[in-house]
Amino acid sequence: MRILLSIFFTFGLLTGLQAQTDTALRSVDTLPGNHFQLRSVERNGEMLPEVDIKEVVIVGRESTSKKFPFYRYQRLVFNLKKVYPYAQVVRAKLAEANDELMRLPDEKERKKYLRKFEKELFGEYEDDVRGMTITQGRLLIKLIDRETYNTSYELIRQYRGAFSAALWQGIARIFGSDLKAEYDPFGEDAIIEIILAEIETGNL
Fold first, then answer.
1. How many whole angstroms separate alpha carbon 81 and alpha carbon 56?
2. Which of 184, 70, 102, 87 has the alpha carbon at shortest distance from 137?
3. How far is CA 78 from CA 57, 95, 139, 159, in A?
4. Are residues 156 and 4 in contact, defined by beta-carbon separation less than 8 angstroms?
5. What is the pLDDT of residues 52-69, one digit of tens each?
6. Taking a C-beta distance cutoff of 8 angstroms, is the pair 12, 117 a contact?
7. 49 neighbors 25 (Cβ within 8 angstroms)
8. Which of 48, 106, 114, 120 has its CB surrounded by the most CB atoms within 10 Å?
9. C-beta separation of 178 from 140 below 8 A
10. pTM of this prediction?
């Protein structure tokens, strides 16, 4: 699974309008200990009550039809639970690496830092990533794009150069993967987005 290790390690690695609140009213829920905070907010010259609520994810019931591939859904949940934490690690490590690279004075020091950083990451996560399946690797590529807003190809190109990016893209193609794969939460990856929302809220 060397290709997964490279994808994972090579790169090291709703904005809202601010409203003014004049007054606040507290309303008590019917359940003991539950309450929510009402604010009075000006909207287009009108004072309106407003309250922040948590996002609600609606998921359809499991189908009883034999044609519904529920086993695939279960397998997808299993794989996402395994790889999603690593995509989050990539996001955190990328931010850490970028902060450090900005502090280094020259290109020589940056390359030295990246080599050391990559070595430390291999030591910490190599066994975990080496144990991933090809399917899990493809999901990881998608989730990296979701978490970093950059494809794996673009991250490798940025940190290791165009040649390395093209080389690893060629190897990935041999294994049926695509480092340029983009995450589409409103299209082919919609079911993944629903599952991740459930995972993030602790429902899965």
1. 20
2. 87
3. 19, 27, 12, 31
4. no
5. 665 655 655 555 555 547
6. yes
7. yes
8. 114
9. no
10. 0.64
Q: What does DSSP assign to residue 68?
A: S
Find out whether 12 and 118 touch, Cβ atoms under 8 Å: yes
Q: In the block, which residue shows the tokens 């690279």?
A: 101
The closest alpha carbon to 152, from 24, 10, 15, belongs to 10
Residue 38 neighbours by CB under 8 Å, 6+ apart: 24, 25, 26, 27, 49, 50, 51
DSSP H or E run through 152: helix 152-160
Amino acid identity, position 200:
E
Q: Look-up: residue for tokens 């399917």?
A: 135
Query: How far is residue 81's CA from residue 60's CA, in Å, rounded to a whole number?
Result: 20
Record the tokens describing residue 149, joined without a space.
């807003």
Query: How far apart (Å, rounded) are the C-alpha atoms in residues 176 and 154?
Result: 18
Report the b/e string of 17-28 with b at 16+ CB within 10 A: eeeeeeeeeeee
DSSP state of 20: P
Question: pLDDT for 64-122, tens place per residue?
Answer: 555 547 888 899 999 999 999 998 988 888 888 888 888 888 888 888 888 888 788 77
Q: What is the CA radius of gyration of the chain?
A: 22
